[in-house]
Design a protein that fits this description.
By secondary structure, the chain is an alpha+beta fold. About 30% of the residues lie in helices and about 15% in strands. It contains eight helices and nine strands. Strand 1 and strand 2 form a beta hairpin. It is globular and about 70 Å long.
């Protein structure tokens, strides 16, 4: 069996327990701190610590999966790294699953049978008023005597036109592990909104208004031309389940899909 660890890639003989009441081989691997690359007949496993180390390097250093595994191959055999078993694709798949499991554990779904709802795998601004979290729900507070700013949230919307994404080569192989559970909205609900929302071509009176010019430009090779979302105006924290992809720049249909009740609630401080 191929075991991938922080110290390198190793080949060891592993024999699972075959007693009548023994657990399945993949569960036995998990109990001993190994994440199998497959669950029926695992031949490759990754240690929990190598997965944690890769996620940390990817987050803080921007290390790609290919560069990280090339480092492991070089650590295993500095003279002949090409002879070390190639488990780059397995690392990419297992790292996504490991990140998803860690995220669900951090948000309280590690030992619960119910599935998370939209935005449950993301945290909102800890300093903004949130009933039941940092704002008391007791009836002792008199809202008539309390200043309005104490329980008011302010939001801003903005977009990033550099976060471009190409069309996937094999879209049928794309697997969404947390569709709509984090900061991004659900893809099916978002597509339904775009198909029903009316959009008008905006003409800019400025000489070179980038947002309007990109909104009218078509880019057929890109699945998304940017990303936009809603954030807390005071602290800059993004709102869960409020990030969307742009298909033709910053169109009204992408970022202004609010209900009438939203404007009544945020009329005095909506930017």
């Amino acid at each position: 069996m191929v075991i991938v660890d922080k110290s390198g890639v190793h080949r060891l003989k592993v024999r699972c327990c075959n007693c009548p009441n023994a657990m399945s081989p993949d569960i036995q691997m998990f109990r001993h701190g190994f994440f199998p690359a497959s669950f029926n007949r695992p031949k490759t496993v990754f240690t929990f610590r190598v997965l944690d180390d890769f996620l940390m390097d990817n987050l803080e250093c921007g290390t790609s999966a290919m560069n990280y595994y090339s480092k492991l191959r070089r650590m295993t055999s500095s003279m002949f790294p090409h002879l070390v078993p190639d488990r780059y694709r397995e690392l990419m798949r297992v790292a996504r699953q490991w990140r998803q499991l860690k995220t669900m554990k951090w948000h309280g779904f590690g030992h619960r049978s119910d599935n998370p709802n939209a935005g449950d795998l993301a945290l909102f601004c800890l300093a903004c008023p949130q009933p039941g979290i940092i704002v008391s729900l007791s009836g002792d507070d008199s809202f008539d005597e309390t200043p309005s700013w104490k329980y008011t949230r302010s939001f801003v919307m903005d977009g990033n036109f550099k976060a471009e994404h190409l069309h996937p080569i094999k879209p049928f192989d794309e697997v969404w592990l947390s569709d709509g559970l984090g900061f991004m909205v659900g893809k099916d609900r978002y597509k339904m909104h775009l198909s029903e929302a009316a959009d008008t071509v905006e003409k800019s009176s400025c000489n070179n208004h980038q947002a309007v010019n990109q909104a009218n430009a078509a880019r057929h090779k890109l699945e998304s031309t940017g990303i936009g979302g809603v954030a807390c105006a005071r602290h800059g924290c993004f709102v869960p389940h409020s990030m969307v992809d742009f298909q033709k720049g910053e169109r009204q249909a992408n970022v202004h899909g609010h209900q009438d009740s939203c404007y009544v609630r945020y009329a005095s401080n909506f930017i």
